[in-house]
Amino acid sequence: MSNPGVGIDTHTQSGEGPAIAGRPPRVALVGNPNTGKTTLYNALTGFRHHVANYPGVTVSIAHGFVREATRPMELYDLPGTYSLAAASPDEAIVTDTLCGHGEVAPKPDAIIAIVDASNLTRNLYLVSQVLEYRLPMVIALNMVDVAESRGLSINAARLSQRLGVPVVPVVATKPSTVKPLIAAVEAVLERPASANGVKLPPALVHEAERLVTCETCACAPTQAVRLLLYKGGHAEATYQRCGGSLEHLEQCREKLRKAGIDGPLIEVQARYAWVNDVVGGVIMRPDRPIETWSDRIDSILTHPVGGMVALILVLYGVFWSLFSGAGPLMDLVDGAFGALGRLVAGWLPEGVLSSLIVDGVIAGVGGVLVFLPQILILFAAIAILEDCGYLARAASMMDRVMRTIGLSGRAFIPLLSAFACAVPAIMGTRAIADRRERFLTIMLAPFMSCSARLPVYAVMIATFVPATKLLGGWIGVQPLVMLAMYSIGIVVSIPVAWLLRRTLLAGPAAGFVLELPSYKWPQPRVVYQRVYQAGKSFIVRAGTVILVVNMIVWALAYFPRSESTRSAVEQQIQAGGWDDATREHELASAYLRDSYLGHMGRSIEPVIAPIGWDWKIGVAVIASFPAREVVVATLGTLFHLEDDAETESLRAALRAARVDHTDRPLFTLPVALSIMVFFALCAQCGATLAVMGREMGSWIYPVISFVGMTTLAYFAAWGVAAAARALMNV
Amino acid sequence: MSLASVPNRRCVRITGVRHGGMSCRLMEMGLITGAEVRVLRRAPLGDPLQIRVGDCELAVRASDADLIDVVDL
């Protein structure tokens, strides 16, 4: 290598050719966010990919084989980053992977660095860092069309000459244009080019060199530079983990400080000086900046008044499509699984196996899949808004609001996703660099009213809230109550955030800088992939947990199934002369009453009695731990319903339900409201708690969340019931 | 003068970035001494600022923009 990155002489791969024995070469795709990285990945792999979940880590990145390569070549899509200074978990993944000690992807044999031609200077900053890992590299120059629309033209040949690595213009949205890129990658794998890197101050290079020789853990010299300049960063954590002495590091830093080298500024300046040298004569600019249609759209969509109106309209549109679009699909899924259950129940002889398959497995799988339509629709809407560039504007407009609760605009998107399901929302917080902000966002996500709460609200509102119209028939009471249920989580999350910011997650508030990419038409493939990922992560991560907990609840509700229960009911049947259907229902509810779950319901009765709940509601609350909507099915079983999918009959049964041994109706408006409020605020979701524990790396947080939210939900339910009773004088 | 006090649609040149807040990230994004910055507009609630540096548009909080010293072009 003629001019190694930071001028440190260590053994490099160049000249030796790729040292790959008996496996396809691995190529990593790196680049800034918003450069069309995922689109290029799709174009290269022909949209066939496999997302790997590596044990012990929470991040999954796509990898697949490059289509149209002359020999097999594996491609890894690393998260988009602006820098390798590793401030966020995503950046740490890229750094670790390039070092070869990442847990997410193996060390690549070559790198494709994608750069945005319309924003070349900033993109080359990352390239200058990646070059220093001295891996064979090709630059994919994307978005040349956007650059041209702004009157910029890029001389790719000259750029390649300056950098010392091949630069291949591509149009990532047109898969046919990526062939030369594949050829270039194959060429550098055979014969690595010698890259021209940034020259850093000699004193810094000298110290970095010494640190590399005395600490074997520093995998690349550039890592050592970072270690010296960034106090308390990811490099320092890695250094300490493999036994590096902090004292020694401080001595090295002190020496540098005396030489006038302190903090990251020196590196940033050296890199931008290098980048400016590189791009001189490479980028041709128009004499006057061209106002693009993107600029004109932005002057409306981020206008002080128009911007807010647009944001409200967009959010309204998203939720409207969510409710009007998902409803019929959810009914379809619900109906299909109900029918399947009845079909299987007809085939199998009555007994434990039939009950396990019908009530445990089929009902469990159906209970998971019923939420898929809402999740897919919301994620499609979010993916479209994100890909066209609007979501970045929405996040920046919301920053001022989010800041009041100790968050930033960045938390807006995950919290919006949480209205469909907290599980993909929690996983979407990985892009938040600040740990406290990320944790706070995760802990607030379950407060947003997810799709599992909707069936609970729907049944309770349709049954017990009067269909009165207010304001001359314009506003119904029922939609108002529904809106109140969606708002309650948001309203309550404000004091909760305040409290968490002062206790568990105390510390300085996170900063906020967000790139606002140019508007563009959303790419159907990118949208499809987002939706697919969200759906898959929901089914895999949430679905499996929901299914397992559902089985446990089924077992608790099924056993012990004693003979004495049966004979007691048989006696009553003979005395009462009931028909077959009534007999079935009586028996089912008697079994449930005498099951372990029934006992648990009765044991918590003293606690829930003040709200006006009896043991049956207690059973429903316990049974709905895996997923909130199970409460509807459980109520169906408890109140003698053969088919809990028929909500009309469930409503009638709920209205007819009486408090045991009295004529008093069990469900009144206060009780219905308290059930809704309880489910709006409780953390009755095993999947969310499991993902929380995994993402936060500690089981303390889900435990705190569960205990805290359940307590809050209990008192809120009690308060609402008491207030409603006082108002209604009952 | 700090970037936070620059009125909308005005171009300025950075003379220095003080340490604190998001200063590291801002520098990495190209807000370094000598760079030209244009304040495009402010978000509906007055904060953050929407700025253009180089070919890139960023949303920057006023508190972070306050760390950036600028002069009129």
Q: What's the arrangement of secondary structure elements?
A:
The complex is a heterodimer of chains A (730) and B (73).
Chain A: E1 26-31, H1 37-45, E2 50-53, E3 60-65, E4 74-77, H2 89-99, E5 110-116, H3 120-131, E6 137-142, H4 144-149, E7 153-154, H5 156-163, E8 167-169, H6 179-190, H7 202-214, H8 221-229, H9 234-241, H10 246-258, H11 265-279, E9 283-284, H12 293-301, H13 306-347, H14 352-369, H15 372-388, H16 390-403, H17 412-417, H18 422-427, H19 435-444, H20 454-464, E10 469-470, E11 475-476, H21 477-502, E12 513-515, H22 524-558, H23 563-576, H24 580-594, H25 596-603, H26 605-608, H27 615-623, H28 630-638, H29 647-656, H30 669-681, H31 686-696, H32 700-728
Parallel strand pairs in A: 1-4, 1-5, 5-6, 6-8
Antiparallel strand pairs in A: 2-3, 3-4, 7-9, 10-11
Chain B: E1 10-17, H1 23-28, E2 36-42, E3 49-53, E4 56-60, H2 62-65, E5 68-72
Antiparallel strand pairs in B: 1-2, 1-5, 2-3, 3-4
Supply database-style keywords.
heterodimer; A: 730 residues; alpha/beta; Rossmann fold; 7-stranded mixed β-sheet; two-stranded antiparallel sheet; 32 helices; 12 strands; disordered N terminus; B: 73 residues; mainly beta; SH3 type barrels; 5-stranded antiparallel β-sheet; 2 helices; 5 strands; 41% strand; globular
Structure write-up:
The complex is a heterodimer of chains A (730) and B (73). Chain A has 730 residues and is α/β, with parallel strands linked by helices. Chain A has a domain at 1-201 and 259-290: P-loop containing nucleotide triphosphate hydrolases (Rossmann fold, 3-Layer(aba) Sandwich), CATH 3.40.50.300. Helices cover 59% and strands 6% of the residues of chain A. Chain A contains 32 helices and 12 strands. In chain A, the strands form 3 sheets. A 7-stranded mixed sheet of chain A has the order 2-3-4-1-5-6-8, sandwiched between helices. Chain A has a two-stranded antiparallel sheet with strand order 7-9. In chain A, a hairpin with an 8-residue loop joins strand 3 and strand 4. Chain A is elongated, with a radius of gyration of 30 Å. Residues 1-19 and 51-58 of chain A have low confidence and may be disordered. With 73 residues, chain B is mainly β. Chain B is 14% helix and 41% strand. Chain B has helices at residues 23-28, 62-65; strands at 10-17, 36-42, 49-53, 56-60, 68-72. The model of chain B has no long low-confidence stretch (mean pLDDT 90). The A-B interface holds A 82-83, 85, 87, 118-122, 125, 150, 152, 230, 263-265, 268-269, 272, 298-299, 302-305, 307-308, 392, 395-397, 399-401, 409, 511-518 and B 17, 19, 21-22, 24-30, 32-33, 40-48, 50, 54-61, 64. Strand 12 (513-515) of chain A pairs antiparallel with strand 4 (56-60) of chain B, so a sheet runs across the interface.
